[in-house]
Amino acid sequence: MTQQMRALVTGGTGRVGSAIAERLREGGWSVLAASRADGDLARPDQARALVERAVLELDGLDLLVNGAGEGFAAKSALEVTEADWELAFGATAKGSFFVTQAAAPHLRESSGTVVMIEDVAAYQPWPSFAAHCAAKAAQAMLTRVFARALAPEIRVCGVAPGPVAVTREQETRRAAETLVRRVGKPEDVADAVVFLAGASFVTGASLIVDGGRLLQSG
Hints:
This protein is of the alpha/beta class and about 220 residues long.
């Protein structure tokens, strides 16, 4: 009998996170979709506690999806406060680091995978989202750092969405920024996560899921 695969998805109740969790469940995975109520991931003790809870409830761990994030709010780079900076880096960079650190021993046992939910903001300078860009760039670097640190037992990959979680009022404008002339859906990101979870010869790489928006820059 094949053992059911087990996944922890942080930020798992948001628009993108819930789509990832649902797609994994549809594929037969057992999933713990964690929300802010399940712990402040900027605090290492709570990050570790969440991982231990997931391992206990799921009876092990095969996949960690670091999807939690905070601090996405437009503000001039010259007006960013320390509180804004701490919020942006908290769950996104610090949380991703300590959740992955805590999950590593369990993922080694299962030859598991980590997927960081990055952002194209990691690869573009957006002056109105300075703290968010910096936090996502840090997270994207963690994809590569952990890929080396945890090899060969654990693969670590990233997914960098473009315009996905946009308001209805923004859809026309944001769709025009892409090559495929549509905005993304949370399910597009979920498809990428599922692909990477099964792509056994891919590690240390990030999959850009933005409809070609990054190519339009400049």
